[in-house]
Amino acid sequence: MAKKKLGLEDLGGFVFSTNDDFDEKDYVEDESQESLSPDEQELEAHFSNKGRGGKTVTIIKGYQGPEEDLIALGKLLKKKCGVGGSVKDGEIIIQGDDREKIIQLLKKEGYKKVKRVGG
Questions:
Q1: Which residue, of 3, 41, 66, 75, has the fewest CB within 10 Å?
Q2: Would you list the domain boundaries of the chain?
Q3: Which fold would CATH assign to domain 36-117?
Q4: Are 31 and 40 in contact (CB under 8 A)?
C-alpha cells in the first residue's frame, strides 16, 4: 500500500508567517509566577487517609508561588518531621498526622496564616 502524500491543508491549520517583523517573544506568555511573602500566604493543614490504603497523611494546601519554592518548602517540612512525602498538584503531602508539628514549623518559617482543617 502506497503512502498518501499530504498537502498543506492536511497539516491541521498551521499558519506560516511571512512577516519579516514577526517577533516570537511578543507572543510567548510569561509563565513565571511571583511568590507571595510567607506572611501573606494562607495555608491549610488537612488530615486525610482516603485513597491511600488507610495510611494517614497531612496535606498542605493553598500555597501560591512557583513550583520550585513549593518543592523546597516540602523538602524542608519532610526533613524537619523526619518522614517521607511528596509535592503533587500544588499540594505538599507529608506522611503521618503531624499537623501540629507542621503548623509550628510553618509559623517559625514566617507563615502566619496556617489553618488546621479536618479531624
A1: 3
A2: 36-117
A3: Translation Initiation Factor Eif1 (3.30.780)
A4: no
Cβ neighbours of residue 97 under 8 Å, at least 6 residues apart? 47, 56, 57, 58
CA gap 82, 93 in Å, rounded = 13
Nearest residue to 75 (alpha-carbon basis) of 63, 67, 88, 85: 85
Give the helix/strand (H/E) hosting 71: helix 67-81
pLDDT at 17 over 90: no
pTM above 0.70, yes or no: no
CB 111 within 8 A of CB 38: yes
**Class of residue 66 by CB neighbours under 10 A (exposed 0-12, middle 13-18, buried 19+):** middle
